[in-house]
Amino acid sequence: MKKLVLLRHGESTWNKENRFTGWTDVDLSPKGLQEASYSGRLLRESGFEFDAAYTSVLKRAIRTLWIALDEMDRMWIPIYLSWRLNERHYGALQGLNKVETALKYGEEQVRIWRRSYSIRPPALTPEDDRYPGRDPRYRNLAPEDLPLTECLEDTVARFLPYWNETVAPQVQAGQRILICAHGNSLRALVKYLDNLSEQEVLELNIPTGVPLVYELDDNLKPIRNYYLGDQAKIEQAMQAVANQGKILPQQ
Ligand code: DG2
Q1: Is residue 234, in this structure, part of any structural domain at all?
Q2: What is the separation of C-alpha 113 from the centre of its chain, rounded to a whole number of angstroms?
Q3: Under 8 Å CB-to-CB from 188, ≥6 apart: which residues?
Q4: 250 within domain boundaries
Q5: 79-94, pLDDT tens digit by residue?
Q6: Residue 184 Cα, ligand 1 centroid: separation in angstroms?
Q7: Is 183 annotated as contributing to ligand binding?
Q8: Mean pLDDT in the chain?
Q9: Per the domain annotation, does 77 fall within a domain?
Q10: CB within 8 A of 152, min separation 6: which ones?
Q11: What is the position in ligand 1's atom list of the atom closest to the CA of 22?
């Protein structure tokens, strides 16, 4: 049996402010720093060992990984970074508050933008300051790989080649791998591993800073998966993610 651990970064400053983040490179909030330490502690106390780790080129995921590995005293394992593990690009929504956007466009529209599989949020233009083509970390990307917006289907399409060609062969060879990424880039992987339908993936919400363990057979088909930690708190955290685009009475 193979084991693979997925970890969404700890709470970012824009998660805290409830803003669409996407490829914006914001850092962890104080709570996010604590979540990152806690996830590393949980992994260590549960006896997990890793041979290598994979993350995006965004600092909220990179820092979470560093902190978790530090907690495990495994800062020396190889770390591989790829833009293909970046969060889904949220297009022109990047920077907007999710509740304010719901008040302006309606909850249902925000739910579609956040969770529909194939409907893209409004796109940036290449003239926009947020266009990734201006960022030196993406200078080697082909123009067609630079997103102006993405739906989850697009994220699956750019993530899967990296999974199939780079990460999956390592897992298959028995390497113990930790992937530290983002809400939607991990939803893309979970959709693929669990063969979820477009409808099922709509209901999938991944909380920040909680290790998600996959036990896989030799063909990398999931045998089971589970989150490490307090299950009631994890349920609440998943519900809180689902509610981020809702106009709740207290807001
Ligand atoms: C969040 C996910 O990404 O947002 O881009 O706003 O995982 O990097 O914090 P992350 C964002 P939702 O799709 O859950 O609204």
Answers
A1: yes
A2: 16
A3: 88, 152, 155, 156, 159, 160
A4: no
A5: 999 999 999 999 999 9
A6: 7
A7: yes
A8: 97
A9: yes
A10: 88, 115, 116, 117, 118, 184, 187, 188, 191, 201
A11: 5
Q: What percent of the chain has pLDDT over 90?
A: 98
How many angstroms is it from 218 CA to the middle of ligand 1?
Answer: 32
Q: Is 165 annotated as a binding residue?
A: no
Atom of ligand 1 nearest to the CA of 115: 13
What tens digit of pLDDT does each residue of 4-57 get? 999 999 999 999 999 999 999 999 999 999 999 999 999 999 999 999 999 999
CA-to-CA distance for 217 and 195, rounded, in angstroms? Answer: 15
CA-proximal residue: ligand 1, atom 15 (nearest):
114
Residue 19: inside a domain: yes
CATH code of the domain covering residue 229: 3.40.50.1240
Closest-lying ligand 1 atom to the alpha carbon of residue 98: 15
Read off the amino acid at residue 236: Q
Task: Cite the DSSP H helix spans in 195-230.
Answer: 198-202
Number of domains in the chain: 1
**Measured on CA atoms in the order 85, 91, 94, 97, is the torsion positive or negative?**
negative
**Which positions of the chain have pLDDT values less than 70?**
250-251
Query: What secondary structure letter does DSSP report for 173?
Result: T
ipTM here: 0.96
Query: Going by C-beta distance under 8 Å and a sequence separation of 6 or more, which residues neighbour residue 53?
Result: 65, 69, 77, 78, 79, 80, 177, 178, 179, 180
User: Ligand 1, atom 12: nearest CA belongs to which residue?
Assistant: 114
Give the structural domain span for 124.
2-245
Q: Residue 134: its pLDDT value, please?
A: 94
Q: Which residues line ligand 1 (CB under 6 A)?
A: 8, 12, 15, 20-22, 87, 90, 114, 182-184, 241, 244
**What is the set of active-site residues?**
9, 87
3-state secondary structure of 221: coil
